[in-house]
Structure formats: C-alpha cells, structure tokens
Amino acid sequence: MKMDNIESLISKTIYKASLYLDEFRWDDWLDLCDKDFYYSIQAFSPEIDKNMIYLDGTFDQMKGITEMLPKHNTDRSPLSRHTVVYTIDVDNEKGTADAVSSLAVYQTQLDGINSHVLAGESNLFMVGKYRDKFILNNGKPKFIERITQLDTRRLDKGSHWPI
Amino acid sequence: MPARNLQQWKEVPGQLKPGEYVDSRIYSDKQIFEEELAKIWKNVWVPVCHESELEKPYDFRTVTISREPVIVVRGTDNQVRAFLNVCPHRGNMIENRPSGSFENGTPSGAPKHMTCMFHAWQFDMKGNCVHISRSKEGYQDRLDCKDVGLRRLRCEVKYGGFVWVTLNDKIEHSVKEWVQGSFDCMQEALDAEPLEVFHYHKAIIPCNYKLWHDTNSEFYHDYLHYHNRVTGFNDSYFARQNKVFDNGHVNVGSFEVQYDNYEGFESREELSFPHLPANHWEMIDLFPGMNFNLRGSALRVDLMTPLGPDKVMIEYRGLGLKSDTPEERLTRQRHHNSIWGPFGRNLHEDLIAVSTQQATMNEWADARRILHGRYEGETIHDEVGMRHFYDEWGKWMDRWPGDPELSYDEGLKKVA
User: Fold this and answer.
1) Residue B104 in contact with residue B111, Cβ under 8 Å?
2) What is the ipTM of this complex?
C-alpha cells in the first residue's frame, strides 16, 4: 500500500475515534483498537516535578470502565474533541506507525451547576496532545496505544469518561 | 406529609433541635467568609505541602494561606522554613513559580539566593536579606540588610513529612497539640518510613469550603458512589465508628474494603501501608479544612484554600512509600487515581454533588436549614462529625451556626 494511503487511513482512524468518543460510542471506539491496546491520560506536574498517570487501562479494562459508566453518577455535559493530526511516522518494516495530534476538548453544559442558567454554554475543558501508536494489519491501522498527554492540570470537577 | 407551603418550609422539620442543623447563610455570606479567614484560617496550622516536594537544599514551593503568599524553602542545613513570599522593599512577590530550586541564578539574581526580580534584593535560605542593590547610595546609613529580613512563619514538619505552617506567630499549640490525638489512628503507618508525593492536582469548585469538608466527614453520601456501595455496605462498614477530638477534628474508623466487588478492581493487600491491616481505610478530618485519607496502598491528602464564600481551591495529593520500586509506584498510583484522580470513580461524583449543593445556597437565595441530625451510635452514617465541626466553628466565629445572627452563647441558650 502506498505511504499516502496509509497516512490517510491513520488520520481517518484518529478522527473517527474523536467522533466516537464525542458521541459516547465506546464500543465503536474500542473497535478501532487492537486487543493489546493500552490507554492512559497523563500530565506532568511542575508542582511535584513528576509525570502523573490520571487514568490508564488495557483494552479489557477500558471496556470494563465504559460498561460501568451507567452505574455512576456523572456530569452529563457532553465533551467535543477538536483534533488535528500533526505528524504520522510509518515504519513499514515493523508494520507500525506513530502519530501526534493536537487536542482541545470543549464542554457544552447540559447539567452544569444550574442547568436553567448554564445549559448550552460551551467552555474549554482541556488541551493537550494525543500520542498514538498503531499496528498495521494488511495495511489497516488499529490503535495499540493512546497516551492522552494533558497540558491542562486544573480539571475542576474532572470526568468519568476516557478523553 | 405532603409538600409544604412556605410557612411549613421555614419551620424546623420534625423534632430536630438547635445544633442539629445549620443556616445556609454560613455557606454564602460574604461577611461571614471574611471573618472566617481572619478568625480561623489565619490562626491555624495548615499542611501546605510535603517534604518530598522540597527534596534538596535550595528547593522551594509557593503556596497561599488566607490570601497571603507563602514560600517554603529547604536550607543548606536541610531544615524546611517558611516565609511570606513578599519582598520587604516594594511588596513584590519574590518567587512566582509553583516549585523549583534557587541553586542556579535567575536573570535578576545570584545562585543560591531568593531574589526579587523587580529590584534584585536578595535573601538567603534563612530569610536574611544579604543584598540591597546600591544600598549605600540610596539609603546611606538609614536602612541596611539587617532591617529588611523576610517575614518568617512558624513551620513544623510532622505526620508523614507534611510541612505545617501558620500565619499566627503567637499560636499557642504545636502541631501535635493542635491535632489532639486525631493522628493516632495512622501515625504509625505514616511515620514508619519516608513517604513521597506521586500525585498532585487541584480543583477550583464553586462551593463553600465547609461543604467539601462536610462531604469528607459524612459517609451517608456513599449512596452517591456506586463504587463505595458495592465495596462497602456490609456489617463492618455500618459498624465504622466516628471519633471526635478537641479542636474540631474527627476520625472516621476503619473497616476492610472489598475492592474485588467492583469489576476491574483488585485487592490493595500487597502494597498496604506499614502497620495498616490489609485493605483498611482510616480517615482524619482536621478543622477547618484538611483531610488525611489512608486507603490500603495510598494516602490521599486534601487541602482546602477558601477563595470566596462560594469558591474553594482543593489540592489533592497522593502519596506512597519513598522506597517503592517503579512497578510498585505505578500500582499505587493506579489504586489512588482509579478512585480519587480527576478521572477516578468517586472524586468526580463528590465534586458534582457539592457544586449543585452550593447552587441552591447562593447569596441571593433564601436562608434555609441544612440538616445534620442523624444519630446512629456515632457509627458511619451518624452525622456527629459535622455537628462536632460546626460546634467548633461557632466557638471560633462567636456565631451560632444554626442562626449566624446569634452569638455562640446565645445559640447555646437555645439548645438549653
């Protein structure tokens, strides 16, 4: 397969993942991932001079987390991911690829603090980068790792959802 | 009883007595908030950071207590000291970064000194002024370094290596005297070997600081948390005892958490803190707004910085043993953050609840009663912790929490 086609497929996979996550289509998101997939949300804290892992899990653990969501109380205000793929580096010999995307996540209030006043308002929720790794099976990319590296460290109420 | 009309709504519900509820204005009134900063927060010990955040000489951390900027530094003698982070010259904040080291120079200053970047006055790690730019030319003999040291603050390193600071030079208690035995339940675990912070995040939440403290001290709200219901809610959970201490502090007694009951979670037994029985969970709520929460393999510490009547910054720290291997640390971090991180199962739920609680108590809303009248033999769903806190609060504020227009003594007469 031509390099252009592989890069295009990887970009499309990253953008599909953003849409599926926006729409709470957790199973569709995980369908884009290999069974050896590892996910994490990380941030560096200058306060303690350490990298932190806020959330992580294997494919099965992320499936478990997303299946448990209906049992948990949460802020139902949806998140919208604005993703821009910056770089894709394909290793044809290994059949892998790395991609870096810029990420901004907006939250549009539904619950808010007082929905009568706040519902409909959009705010920047977090910014960061996706650092993705792919495995290429017959030219078809599947996520094998996603590190959501956050610049934003003041997350206030936080979230139950993968980003 | 059907829904109540306005008159019925304003009446004390049921047979509850004064002291078993508070007036919602204590969560929203600006004057009360200002009094709280002046009367309480400027006069108590605050665990502002952990010693592992200042590992080497010249390391520093900057924090705030009751709107006052504070800098904590480790000296060449390895002692941790605290100062107002204010230059005695023109009142500039000396250091703006959250953390770092003075080992290397800054654009305005020499290595191994705290330097105010504005006019390059320099201070050593003991807070002594050691350099005034063009001192003789400007001040002749009217002022020199010995006149303009930093404002030092009382500081102790205690209970697992936390750095406790107070703005009150004349405070009567040491930290040990202040906490009144409330650390007895976990001191052995905290002081067995050095600890290290592995997690830090903060949240600024639209709620009064006391609402967060309430949530840390009352476990009746475990109905909010699916995780806590399935891993607790058995006989030993309902037998957990609350224990009160002088100065408004409270312990929430331990029990064995059944982590395996939550799908995908595992026992914390292998990485239990020293001297803590496997999967046990001890908690200390310190007046007026700190929480030490030791849960199996990880210690969580909350520190509140009140920012307004309806605004609080909460700093969350996660700690493990300094001797952890990288693998142990990763597991400990996972245990901590899967429940208490910004994407954890419980913390998000708690923060939603206190935000929507405050939304009904803004300064324009009618005053209403907030109940804490549950009695269950001082066990886990007994609201004795909140009653104890508000009794202490009333003494410090000389206000009756159930009607803040009354003095504490006037309120006591109502109870009598």
Assistant:
1) yes
2) 0.95
